[in-house]
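Need tokens for this chain, all 341 residues.
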Amino acid sequence: MKILQMMAGGPVGGAETFFVDAIKAIDELGVEQRVITRGNNAHKIKTIESRGIVLEKASFGKSWRYPTKQKIKKHIQDFKPDIVHHWMGRAGTFSQKGAHVNIGWYGGYYKPKRFKNCQYHVAVTQDIVDHIVRCGVPADKVFLLHIYAEFEKGAPLDRAEFTTPYDVPLLLSLSRLHTKKGLDILLQAMRDVPDAYLWIAGAGPLEQELKAQMRALKLQDRVRFLGWRNDREALLATCDICVFPSRYEPFGAVVVEAWGTQKPLIAARAAGPKAYVSHEENGLLVDIDDARGLARAINRLIGDGNLQEALIANGLRAYQGRFTREVFKKNVMDIYSEAKL
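Here are the structure tokens for all 341 residues:
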């Protein structure tokens, strides 16, 4: 089987990270792949090319589409893929008809018209599957494919590197610095969590605004902005609690990452976390935009070791049942095999 994988994508982001993880998992199955993607992330390019996978850089430009369309056409002619897998909406708009099968991947509530040449559609949650069907796509052409998270056990980082004491609770937020992610609410909550430090690992358009808010709240002694990081395993190994305050989140890879690395999780009730996290079983859920509620949840978890242990154990069971690399490999190959028929 031959798969041409395509994604435009931003320089950083959860979907962009999973794109690379998916290609790595599929490569382990011996499937021949090629990749067309933007050259906007050196780590992504290096990771894919290090596996001997042919990679073509393309702009996926919105106004001047011709160069990217020609590159795609050439690879389809030369590689003769069985399947062209379009990751997210921008790539979907570049789908081309041919002897191959086109698949569109939805990491959010995209409009199916962006994948108009795709015979099959793949979504990361059941709710997004239902959305696609409500938009008129036949149910037998839509598949559910959960992401996975699998890490080599990382050694904790030296907290001193980020001027953080070893004897304080350490909170971690893995997130783009975007209004959807609710980091302003997390900073507000930190006023009422005086015993904890917070690391925010991510990049995005709100960086300066969030740093200004941190200073206005006089939190600069306890909050650290780490920038975008490629060592999530080490960050998760270092923290005590993972906090995920997103206002809008179709799924949320951080949920799976916290479960898989056995860290207690607190999340806001956005669509994705609300669908997968059971309150007080495998995580704590708080209302969106509720800074006081978030602070109460953090303080409660810091002070209750038994609750921490229960959330960790149940989160690990949820992870092992649906979100491991091996589960993903079986599910993605089932989809590819059915689509190829």
